[in-house]
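User: Can you help me understand a structure? I only have the sequence.
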Amino acid sequence: MDKLFEYSNKLVKEVDTRFFRYIYNEINWNNRMLGLIGPRGVGKTTLVLQYIRESLDPAETLYVTTEDFYFVDHRITQLADDFVKRGGKYLFIDEIHKYKDWSKELKLIYDYHKDLHVVFTGSSILDIKKGSADLSRRAVIYTMQGLSFREYLQLFHGIQSETYSLDEILSRKVELADVPHPLPLFGDYLKRGYYPFALEDDFELRLTQIINQTLESDIPVYAGMNVATGRKLKQLLLIISKSAPFKPNMSKIADMLSASRNNIADYCLYMEEAGMVAQLRSNTGGIRGLGKVDKIYLDNTNLIYNLSADNPNIGNIRETFFLNQMRVKNEVYTSPVADFIIGDKTFEVGGKNKGLRQVKDVENGYIIKDDIEEGYLNVIPLWHLGLTY
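Assistant: Let's start by predicting it. Here is the structure, written out as tokens:
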């Protein structure tokens, strides 16, 4: 166990605390047990290490990853018992989904150690949501997504901006004095600004590895798929990436993939939960996730450029950015007359030459335009929507 403490203290000491993700101050760290989930590569490990460094006593804190060889012949419950006996109070467990029966053991830890705080992270959202049923009434789960355009400006370029609510953006209250010409930076963000690891070398290669690991390992292991089915997931993702956007025709897709029509909807849901795609639904019933799927997008624009590097569809990119950024603070649904609905507001997304036709007869209708720096009347620059978190 001494080796675990040595490794934990080394990581905490080395973590950079100059930049904190949007969700850092939204988490109630006082919960006795909380989970932080999100797609691979969005910065979950860095965030928990920052919290340890900023707020906790190293003598009472331990960070471990379930990939450590320690867990070849030790259980998490055993670790917790030994840790508490040493005076431990805060246990952080990374990559929890890679540990068999993790939810059952966390439940036991919660029940047996009343004074121990446990934070766990997981990249496989599918498995975390499945296991969290065992932790009902015990663990509070937070979901984290990649960088907003605002966070990208700060992390990549040292440019500070406050966050704006959607209402403030639509009222044209955005001020970004340090960026006289934001469009070149916005273009870079769309290509490589969603994942913090883009600051490191070989971004495209690393992102490809994340895509492959998610489709070839995370989802198949969770759903009990064979290797051939994992390949079908990759084919389906490529089909979606080349559409503008993708309107699902389950029978046609099934024929293309030589798969059962009944399985396609499950494949799409698995990829959505794993952070590879986003499904835009109608607001039938008014309950999120229950409406009919109208369109399917890739989860974020970096994935589009990675998978469709030769000829990415600009309309697809714009709508993907809108949905990706808006979903963090809002419920986004498909519109029968335009692209999106949020509350009582209707949005049509396009380039600088986009007209007002789709929303001219709609109350609270807005045109979201790419390639413009400033807005006017009910016309809002697309990049403004990246400042909400």
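Now, to help you interpret it: Residues 203-223 form the longest helix (21 residues). The mean pLDDT is 92. Let me know which part you'd like to focus on.
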